[in-house]
Amino acid sequence: MSHHASPAMKLLAAPFLLMLAALVVWPLATVLIDSFSKGGVWSLGNYAEILTSAYYGQSFVNSLLISAVTTAIGVLFGFLIAVSLRYRSGGTRRIAMALANIGANLAGVPLAMALIFLLGLNGTLTIVLKASGLIGSFNVYSLTGLIIAYCYFQIALAVLLIIPVLDGIETELEEAASLIGVGTTRFWLRVGLPVVGRQMVAITTLLFANAMGTYATTLALTGTSVNVITIRISELVSGDVFSDPNLANAIAIALFLVLLVPIVVSQLLLKGDKR
Amino acid sequence: MTTTRHPALTTTLWFAAILLLLPVLATFLNSIATGWTGGILPSGLSLDAYQTILLDARFQSALLRSTIVAGLALFLACLLIVPAVIAAHFYWPTLDTWMARLVILPYAVPTIILMVGYLRVFSAPPLQLGGQPIVLVLTYVPLCFPMFYINVKNSLQALDTTELFEAGRLLGISDARLLRRVILPSIFPGIALAIVLNFAGLMSEFVYARMLVGGQFETLQMYMFAQRDLSGRLSSVIVTVYFLITLLITFAAFRLVWRTETKS
Description:
Chain B: InterPro entries: MetI-like (IPR000515), MetI-like_sf (IPR035906). Chain B: It is found in: Cell inner membrane; Cell membrane. The complex is a heterodimer. Chain A is mostly helical. Chain A is about 75% helix and about 0% strand. The model of chain A has no long low-confidence stretch (mean pLDDT about 90). Chain B has a domain at about 55-225: MetI-like fold. In chain B, about 75% of the residues lie in helices and about 5% in strands. In chain B, helix 2 crosses helix 13 and helix 3 packs antiparallel against helix 4.
């Protein structure tokens, strides 16, 4: 845009910047500052406790494990679904986008409840699978249950994010490849995937962050029984016997760093892409 | 499209669709079954449980609370975010670049992290509002930012405004007047889409509702959480009704997109 810079017009953004300062920067700053406070004095004690405690270490390991597995599944299926939708009519694509949007919004309490109806002790699918002798028993209130639950919104989110990225690959390119005898699978492995590689890395980091920060689905499905990072944070601030808000601050900062590093790296990669 | 359909891809699509719809189907089946004979087929079907839930005052109040909180937050978000995106687009490229980066904020800073900070911020002056519903209205505003930025920015980019501003200057019409009379009406579909999509997102918010305000102001999500151990039939009705609400909102959003697409 090449308009004459008009300083008065910049004032239109002032209320927004104030809001950002009050509702994003300020709370984040308090989390950071309070994370260095233990028993009323400045110290690295909270961080030392996270690093030495097997309990909090395990919560990070569990969160990382669930997030890595469901991100891989999400990206793989999201990519396959997005590729399949390229060969479909606009109507089918629109319905699929709407379904993926609904899937992403159902994450949380309703998703956990729906999965219990499907895979719980008396779940519809549990009964079918048991009757057919395929499984002896299945416990949905477990780490496996959480992985299945996360997969639902991870795949939905992946589809929503990948479809626009694939639109960047011209159909002419694919048709040309098809004319010289390059099959669909080879085209996507050799041409399609490398073209959108950096964007796929960025999407992967977002999916990973999405899983790491998941709380509602986890709490509604497994309560506090599976030791993951978000459940630990919420317990430390909820004001009962486990309460230690400053330790929660330190864990929140640790989580923030785990998410920030891959996101920043992938965004820098994307920037290099545009040049 | 002339490219041949790959059979494996078709299978993937069907497999995914069935897998993703299974929990919804199981929930719906539970909500209309009057009892089970031990197998997978119910002994009878009825919609009675729907009447029970839809007429339940607690459900109605929760739905109303969520709608009001989301509505107020969206009103505030419109007032704060839309002018800023417009100002950044036309007059402040540096801010625009930063806004584009901020779109990933909800991923980089999950609500669970901000929630810990909000507990502190809202527990002392000048924002000593701890536990009051207004806290939800305020904390929901930043959550609306990415959808507003993406959709308003898309609408702005679709306009050819350089000539418009030059013509305006020749005729002595101020930028402010042009923004209000020409730009704002033409980006309205983008704003409307952002509102609808954000509304669905805010209705599904749980972390702030539970940790910052809690059960004394029961939102729809908190109501569902409290009722999850209810008889399978009633809680499955609640999930089905919630699913239908989300379906309705999404359908409205996609109609908006479709209408603007066919117009242009």
